[in-house]
Amino acid sequence: MALRLYNTMSRSIEEFIPITAKEVGMYSCGPTVYNYAHIGNLRTFLFEDLLKRVLIASGFEVNHVMNITDVGHLSGDGDDGEDKLERAAREKKKSAWEIADYYTEAFLKDFDDLKMIRPDTICKATDHIQEMIDLILRLEEKGHTYQSGGNVYFSIDTIDDYGKLARLDLDQLQTAVREGVEEDEHKRNPKDFVLWFTRSKFGEQEMMWPSPWGRGFPGWHIECSAMSMTYLGEQFDIHCGGIDAIPVHHTNEIAQSEAATGKKWVNYWLHGEFLLDETGRMSKSRGGFLTLSLLKEKGFDPMDYRYFTLGGHYRSQLRFNFDNLASAQNARTNIVKHIQGLLKEGAKAIELTGGKALEYKEAFLSAVQHDLNTPKALSTLWAVVKSSDLTNDEQYSLMLYFNTMLGLGFDEIAKPKDVAASDEALRLLSERNAAKAAKDWSRADHLRAELLEMGYVVKDLPSGSVLEEKM
Ligand code: AMP
Ligand code: ZN
Questions:
Q1: Quick one: 109 exposed, middle or buried, by C-beta within 10 A (0-12, 13-18, 19+)?
Q2: Which ligand is nearest to the CA of 256?
Q3: Measuring from atom 14 of ligand 1, which residue has the nearest CA?
Q4: CA dihedral 258, 261, 263, 268 (to 10 degrees)
């Protein structure tokens, strides 16, 4: 079965064909580490993890690179905002380096809690300043840059396909200056963007490096071009991120990368849609957002959130509220209980070779291979949970297989401990049986409550009452 993915560049679902059979190069725009990641950001990283897992399940080796933006990402889309890290450092009275370290660690903790596979390379912008300078020098040599007002700009009029990813209508943009975005008098074209800053209206900043154009710091877009090319080469397969990156960040990455190399840069562009809360798009700069830690404080497991995100297609907006998360928690708990039940009855992993089990396996794979259709894949998972035509071993093995792509931790579910009920608990159970036989319902209820306090749930089955350990 072929893997098919929606390519933002062509606006269509295409068969995925890698540049080389050996491995797939995949780059994700990483977090800007001036605050905690919110669960919207995490939705985008979860979509990228799903993509990687589906590539692997489809037989590809993946070389995954993700950056950490620890300098150069300014507030607002224009080039005249303040560096987000510097602003957070000022507000929190810490150094920009401390802010970056702290929030990088917090991000990686969330990453691991959500059972995302760590990228092969996680690279910090501040560790790759020389590569960025080298790339700007290449652009300068080819005549794509100019210096003005202390900054080095990329001139979009030196290329003929600027804006092809976002399908920007440049003529219209020239005449309609966006509200709230100040026009930069140093730019020859309002869509030109900064490659290297030496001057900011916010004064000297902490993170600055020497360069041929003076002490300063890189623009956010050049960071991703330089780091991805360092680790994946001048042409690679997949670049992904959130949908908001299309009109500016990815558009500018493409412009400068292709201008520097003279070649097509990336073959497949994939973008995840937004997570919405009750007020609209969840946003880091707006504040008041939800974090994974907060969900945990409210009694949710990170896997409940992961399951919740899988219920929507990555290219559709997903509305978050706690009722929806509770439904996801309920559904996931039922799957976990089902797997525990299978293990209790001795289920083990086997190779699936034919029959009905193979049909379920293929149905699941074909859903995810069709542009990561997880809602459809989950319906196959539930069909397996409810099936009566599979053996326990087949059911269990299918759940493990689905888990390689869903990343829900099914492989870590252990066989539930057998209830070694204490003598006292067994004595109370037989007393309760006697009370029931004598139709003394209030005594029976009282004994049930007493057993619950001791950690046992009484189950009244047609064959008699039994004890189960409280979950
Ligand atoms: P940042 O840390 O702000 O650079 O963002 C990290 C990633 O989260 C980027 O790929 C953004 O496109 C993405 N993102 C930002 N807001 C949301 C949202 N509400 N829902 C989904 N993804 C988002
Ligand atoms: Zn990027």
A1: middle
A2: 2
A3: 41
A4: -50
What's the CATH code of the domain at 403? 1.20.120.1910
Band of the pLDDT at 417, cuts 50, 70, 90?
low
Q: Of 248, 409, 381, which is closest to residue 311 (Cα–Cα)?
A: 381
Cα separation values, 269 from 13, 135, 189, Å: 11, 22, 26
If asked whether residues 431 and 398 sit together in one domain, one would say no
Which candidate, 245, 212, 214, 246, places its Cα nearest to that of 138?
212
Give pLDDT, residue 181. 54
Provide the 10 A C-beta neighbour count for residue 87: 19
Q: Do 220 and 71 fall into the same domain?
A: yes
User: How many domains does the chain divide into?
Assistant: 3
- Statement to judge: residues 224 and 244 lie in one domain: yes
Q: Crossing angle, helix 355-369 and helix 39-57, to 10 degrees? A: 130
Separation of CA 281 and ligand 2 centre (Å): 20
Q: State the distance from the centre of ligand 1 to the C-alpha of 425, rounded, in angstroms.
A: 52
Q: Is residue 287 part of a domain?
A: no
pLDDT single digits (tens) 51-93 = 999 999 999 999 999 999 998 788 866 787 888 888 888 888 8
Tell whether the model's pLDDT for residue 180 goes beyond 60.
Answer: no
* CA of 25 relative to ligand 2 center, distance in Å: 15
Q: Which helix H or strand E contains 174, and what residues bound it?
A: helix 170-175
- Phi, psi of 467, deg, nearest 5: -105, 140
Mean pLDDT on 253-275: 98
Domain that holds residue 435: 423-469
Average pLDDT of the chain is 92
Identify the three-state secondary structure at position 270. Answer: strand
d(CA 469, CA 452): 9
Least confident of 48-52, 87-91, 446-450, 463-467: 463-467
Residue 221 and residue 172 share a domain: yes
What mean pLDDT do residues 163-190 have? 73
CATH of the domain at 249: 3.40.50.620
Residues 170 and 42 in one domain: yes
